[in-house]
Amino acid sequence: MQSALDPASTDAARIAELWWWMLAVSTAVVVAVLALLAVALWRGRRGGQPTSPRPAWSMVLVGGVAAPLVASVAVVVHSIQIGHAIVAAPREPAVTVDVIGRRWWWEVRYQDDGGRTIATTANEIHLPVGRPALLRLHSDNVIHSFWVPNLQGKADMVPGQVNDLWLEPRQTGIFRGQCAEFCGTQHAFMAFVVVVEPEDDFRAWLRREAAPAASPESPLEARGRDVFLAGSCRACHTIRGTTATGRTGPDLTHLASRRTLAAATIPNTVGHLGGWIADPQSVKPGALMPPTPLPPEDLRALLAYLRTLR
Amino acid sequence: MPPDASRDILYETWQSPPGFLGWFTHVNQRMIGKRFIITAFAFFLMAGVLGILMRVQLSFPQNDFLGPDLYNQIFTVHGTAMMFLFAIPVMEGFAIYLVPLMIGTRDMAFPRLNAFGYYVYLIGGVTFFASLLFGVAPDTGWFNYVPLAGKEYSPGLGVGIWTTMITFIEVSALTAAVELIVTILKLRAPGMALNRMPLFVWAALIMAFMIVFAMPSVIVSSSLLILDRVLDTHFFVASAGGEPLLWQHLFWFFGHPEVYIIFLPALGMISTIIPTFTQRPVFGYTALVLSLVATGFISFGLWVHHMFTTGLPHLGMSFFMAASTLIAIPSGVQIFCWIASLWGAKVSLKTPMLFIVGFFAVFVMGGLTGVMVASIPFDLQVHDTYFVVAHFHYVIIGGSVFPLIAGLYYWYPKVMGRMMSERLGWVSFWLIFLGVNITFFPMHELGLDGMPRRVYTYLSEMGWGPMNMVATAGAALLSAGFFVTLANALWSMKHGAPAGDNPWGAATLEWATTSPPQPYNHRNIPVVHSRTPVWDWRGRDERPVVGGLREDRRELLVTSVLDAEPMVVQVAPKPTPWPFVSAVVASLGFIGILIHPIFFVIGFFLVFFTYVGWFWPRRPWRED
Question: How far apart are the first and last CA of chain A?
Answer without folding.
Answer: 26
